[in-house]
Each structure stands twice: as C-alpha cells, then as structure tokens.
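REQUEST FORM: STRUCTURE PREDICTION
Request ID: SP-0412
Submitted by: Lab K.M.
Chain count: 1
Length (residues): 208
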Amino acid sequence: MHYKFITIEGNIGAGKTTLASRLAKHYGAKLILEEFADNPFLAKFYARPQQYAFPLELFFMAERYKQLKEMLQTKDLFADKIVSDYLFIKSLLFAKITLSEDEYSLYNKLFDIINPQLLQPDLMVFLNAPIPKLQENIKRRDRSYEQNIPDAYLSSVHDVYMQYIRQHPMRTLMVDTTKVDFMHNPDDFERLLDALEREYTPGVHYFE
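STATUS: Completed
RESULT:
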C-alpha cells in the first residue's frame, strides 16, 4: 500500500469496519476501530435525540480523541501502516446534524482545540451507499438501537459528508458500493488493493 495511514469512512451501515478490518489483516497494519458501543448515551439518543444529542456527541469526540491519541502515538515494531474505520472530523459532521446552533458553536470550539493535535490520514476511502442499502445492512447487523433510524437522518449524514468532501481537498477514493462487493467478490478487493498502490493528488478520485 502506498499510504501509511488510511481511513475508511461512510454513512451508518456502509461497511466501514468490515473493510477496515480486512485491509488491516491483509497489510499487517495497526487497526483502529471506533468503540461506539461504549457510549452510554447512544440508545438514549435514538429514543430521545433532542435531549441526549449533546452528551452523545461530546462523549464520542472525547473517546475518539483519546483512542486516536493513544494508538497513533504507540509505536508498533511489527506494523508500520495504520487503517482506521473513522475520521476524527466525523465528530464535527454528526454534531452539525444533531446539535442546536448554540450547542454546535460550543462543540466546534472544543473540536478546534483538539483536532490539530492528531495525525491526519494520508487517504480516505469513502464508501458511498444509497439509503436502501444502508438500511438493509443496518437490519442485517441487528443492533437494537439502530433499527428505527429514519431515512431522513441517514440522508442528512450523507449530505454533510458530501459537503465536507467538496470543501476540503483531502485525498479521497470514492467507492460506489452498489457496483462492488469487497467481501464476496475477490476481484473487487484485488482491484482496491491495486488502487491503494497509486499516488493520488488531493481531491476526489473515483474507484472504477
């Protein structure tokens, strides 16, 4: 792989963790997976979003920062590459959807203080999936608190990611998940490995 640190991103249910885990195994890379299940506000948020949005997002940001800070600073003599299943900026993107204007303003100030302290990925692989496919995947993995996520919320998540990608010249490999199946089609996975050998300029590049 050409890159030292890549992150797999996408909407809820896009397949980020599955692909990140497979890539890390293939490359013998350090794997960083988001520990979302430890958030005590997650189920409460899906039941009462207005009441629990701020503590939910604050807890996520603190835990992501702590995890990335610890894992990115720990040298692994046997793994010189890193694969993660989230980008730290997702804290701010989700907060933009869930928080009120005043809460978001405060959250943004906290984010701006800690974000510069983290190593940023060399490349983001973005799994772009339509909402019906996301809902299918969400139902299949059967996490009780996710089963009633509205399409409108998934649509908002998609929109805020697209806005960020358009406005920030990060190296991004955009994958249309309706056309590939990395888990069940070996040829698709091999083509992705080939794609990760290429040197991309900042901006969006499409996985063909």
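NOTES: The chain has one domain: 5-206.
Reviewed by: T.R.
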